[in-house]
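Supplementary Text 2. Reproducibility record for the structural model of the 289-residue chain.

All settings were left at their defaults, and a single model was retained for analysis rather than an ensemble. We include the record here because the model underlies the residue-level annotations in Supplementary Table 4.
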Amino acid sequence: MSHVLDDLVALLSLEAIEENLFRGVSQDLGFRQLFGGQVLGQSLSAASQTVEETRSVHSLHGYFLRPGDAGLPVVYQVDRVRDGGSFTTRRVTAIQKGQPIFTCSASFQQHEEGFQHQIAMPDVPGPENLKSETELARAVADRLPERMRERAVSDKPIEIRAVRTEDPFGPEIAEPARYIWFRADGALPDIPAIHKYILAYASDFNLLTTSLLPHGVSVWQKFMQVASLDHALWFHGDLRADEWLLYAMDSPWANSGRGFSRGSIFSRDGRLVASVVQEGLIRLREDWK
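Retained model, structure tokens:
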């Protein structure tokens, strides 16, 4: 693994500080607040560490309550809600400065066979000839906000390649849909839970901003306030986050200062491995001038 991927795996591993209590370090990606994907991945990690290894997470439903501080660690308190015959439920509260910043419920299931069907994977170009987000950022580094420039052009633990590139400084009105290839930038351990933590972390990239496409605006524009409100994630089976995954996203609705987006994540061979839904703030800032 690269050192940045090593750092991400360590970030998602957490320190057990008491029964049902964990602590995670934070990562500053240059945003105004803590990246939501970090809290998602760490919350899933905290919940998973209290569940039998024979049960795998199949869903996570969370709410972002307060902006997090990227300069401070996060404490995760796990409530062991239920250990049933087939399903296990955990509730996780992420805490900073004595206040909850995120809360979620996660459900785990013992493996069983059943009916099977899935939607087809979209027919889009593969990742081989696409430029990564980091390459694109380096090409316009002089136009990036100073507080985000170093992070934007540095090596990343998750490689992201968009099928269709967009100009963040002069966005055009487009259909509310996008396709993104992503993978961990290096080989990960053969531990299924780690691959799911990584996917949870990466599932917060690009999803909410899909709801901005039909309005010709960008998160990079100073007059926009964009923040996640809630996030739901379903896992449909094991996956490898160090192999290419296709994130197919669309936004069927926006109103009242909120945008609603959903995503389907496919393995390279066409398996639907996860589904995601998110709603967030997409409003004009009153104080941007």
